[in-house]
Amino acid sequence: MQRMEDWMLPPEKKKPPRPMQAAAIAGFVGALLLFAIQLGLQTLARGDAPLGTMFATKVLGLRGLAALLAGTFSFCLAGAFWGALYAALVEKIAAVSGLLFGFAPWLVTMLVMLPIVGRPVFAGGEVKKILLWLALSLLWGAFVGASTPSLNKPRLAA
Q1: Domain boundaries defined on the chain
Q2: What whole-number distance in Å separates Cα of residue 75 and Cα of residue 34?
Q3: Are 42 and 50 in contact (CB under 8 A)?
Q4: In 3D, which of 89, 138, 86 has the Cα closest to residue 109?
Q5: Helix (H), strand (E), coil (C) string for 6-62
Q6: Global pTM value
Q7: How many Å apart are CA 55 and CA 140, to the nearest integer?
Q8: From first to last of its 158 residues, what are the pLDDT tens digits of the chain?
């Protein structure tokens, strides 16, 4: 919501609103891309099941296609939440700030989400898994930071 005095300022002095919607969309799409990468790694026997699928299986008790669909949706919703939080907290939206923000969801994954799905904190010290989760989180953050400004540009009416 606009502050009362903002409407009195000339356009060049007004601060643009923080792009929370655009960042939420970027976070959702970025999470979908990460989910696809995780599925590919699982298929190649190079990684665990995607975190969303583990959540749907362990917490919601779903199996098969239902677990895959619910897992994809819950993972993407989490991505949208983190994207909106990024836009709310970070003043300068860019790939580098997004990359740095990617540490936050990684840390929550390591300390909270892995134990919820029955895995040890920090992947039980398995360096390859810790680094894979970190790389994916940083990739997601950079994607959100880089994508948000272009999604937040005004569109011309058709």
Answers
A1: 20-151
A2: 9
A3: yes
A4: 138
A5: HHHCCHHHCCCCCCHHHHHHHHHHHHHHHHHHHHHHHHCCCCCCCHHHHHHHHCCCC
A6: 0.82
A7: 19
A8: 445 455 566 655 555 556 899 999 999 999 999 999 999 988 888 778 888 999 999 999 999 999 999 999 999 999 999 999 999 999 889 999 999 999 999 999 999 999 999 999 999 999 999 999 999 999 999 999 999 988 877 655 44
Rounded distance, CA 82 to CA 79, Å? 5
Are the C-beta atoms of 49 and 72 separated by less than 8 Å? no
If one counts every other C-beta atom within 10 angstroms of the C-beta of residue 88, the result is 11
Cβ-contact 145, 99 below 8 angstroms:
yes
- Cα 21 to Cα 149: distance, rounded to the nearest angstrom: 11
Query: Which DSSP category does 109 fall into?
Result: I
Mutual angle of helices 127-151 and 64-89, in 10-degree steps: 60
Q: How far apart are CA 126 and CA 86, in angstroms?
A: 28
Look at residue 1 in the predicted model and tell me its pLDDT: 47
CB 117 within 8 A of CB 55: yes
Which DSSP helix (H) or strand (E) runs through 79?
helix 64-89
